[in-house]
Amino acid sequence: MTTIHIAKTSRWFGNVVAVNDVTMDIRPGVTGLLGPNGAGKSTLIHMMSGFLAPSSGAVTLDERPIWRNAAAYREIGLVPEREGMYDYLTGGEFVLANAELHGLPDPGAAARRALDTVDMTGAADRRISTYSKGMRQRVKMASALVHDPSVLLLDEPFNGMDPRQRMHLMDLLRTMGDEGRTVLFSSHILEEVEQLATHIEVIVAGRHAASGDYRRIRRLMTDRPHRYLVRSSDDRALAAALIADPSTSGIEFDAAERALRVQAVDFGRFTTRLPLLARDNGIRLLTVSPSDESLESVFSYLVSA
Amino acid sequence: MSAIYNPTVARLTYRALLGRRRALILLSLPALLLVIAVAVRALAGVDDRAATEILGGFALASMVPLIGVIAGTGAIAPEIDDGSIVYLLSKPLDRRTIILTKLWVAIGVTVAFTTVPILVAGLILNGNSQQIATAFAVAAGVASIAYSAVFLLLGTVSRNAVVFGLVYALIWEALFGSLVPGARTLSVQQWSLALAERIAADGADITSDVALPTAVIFLAAATVLGTWYAGERLRALTMANDE
């Protein structure tokens, strides 16, 4: 059982702050690191995997620092996001080389076991350059698992995978988590994270925005005020009916757009009430479109919350 | 206490260097040298002066540094470029061991691809008369060690290692050195020439601008410092922020 502690950690590049005063513990089980692209997820993972020194604060494996501590890699398995991986080797040679580099007593057996775990035994004799994206990802997994690490760090592991490969990897990571390993993966897709992670850490613009189980994060995300653009046969009458309903908190009549800008506070109630109100008042709805559904706006709401 | 050699790192490095197109480039220059040697011998007969000029002017001045650039930077720069170096670095392995192993491989490749063809070319040109072939082969061997260390360092610190290496090999060593006398003091080629000068007979007309003791000190210093600093840089290597 190993825990990664991130304590008041910041990392800046020149005058760009990539990670800003983050404190979190990554415990055994599967943790999802969620955030939009460019939020600092990779920077955080690079610090957890010993490839970046924190500019301030400390990143430790249990109580031992990770930066400049090669012994930490006995416990860490890393699946990097980048594709470079000795394409001139076969998958089998690649995993075997990783086993040897770990100094394992029987690297051949360890490599075979790891290849079997990711279901790549059949393709182990083919050169990596001939592999599909999903196969490369699985061989990377095998190389990270070859020394049976207690910590597994994966940077955007599902990128470019087809649904079947994705399910296979999710099953594998779930098993790893159930076995008591500390599994951390990053993603910018909420659905991906909530399918797999029991615990979610949200990073936005370098800051730690939220932390908890996925139900809490999901609620935070759906409970936020939603904005809609609504056009109808009688905007003013509809506005009057909507503001009388507790599901809305504000309505603006946008003369230029000839539309209503509605702020809903109770997402579920608003979506069921809106068509009923329109029908009751004999109003035809022409347009109902959410105006801030992008992931970025969800995240920025989380940061300000 | 760190190991000075790791067989797995060596195997990966050899395969990177000797696989693919690199092996062809590595082979083309020695092949060219042998073609020149055969042609000169056939057309002009045995001529010590021609031997000195070809082995000194082409082999030691151009071929050795070029092969040094390819082997030295090629031993590490591509891995840093495409990110595959993480698979070496994320292991309980002293990073100085990685650098030292890569140095041995780069030296081995450079020595093999320079000393052997130089010796053969020298035998073809004048049958090793006045020890000219031996002198240049030894000089190439020593230069290979220093070049490997210097270019391995370059490959570790710079993303444009090959370009800088070529600029050094072609402009500094070949051109600048002949125009600016001071530049010759800081030239691997001149240091190794000092050794060749000592080995060859006096009539061979091999001269270096650097005295032998100075040359040996400079060669050793460049090799040791280059390797040490490359190790330090690899220990502090951080992943570029891709985001």
UniProtKB/TrEMBL annotation, chain A:
One of its GO terms (molecular function) is ATP binding. The keyword Lipoprotein does not apply. CDD domains: ABC_DR_subfamily_A. Coiled coil: none annotated. Keywords: ATP-binding, Nucleotide-binding, Transport. Residues 1-230 form the ABC transporter domain. InterPro entries: AAA+_ATPase, ABC_transporter-like_ATP-bd, ABC_transporter-like_CS, P-loop_NTPase. The keyword Transport applies. Belongs to the ABC transporter superfamily. This is ABC transporter ATP-binding protein. The lineage of its organism: Bacteria, Bacillati, Actinomycetota, Actinomycetes, Kitasatosporales.
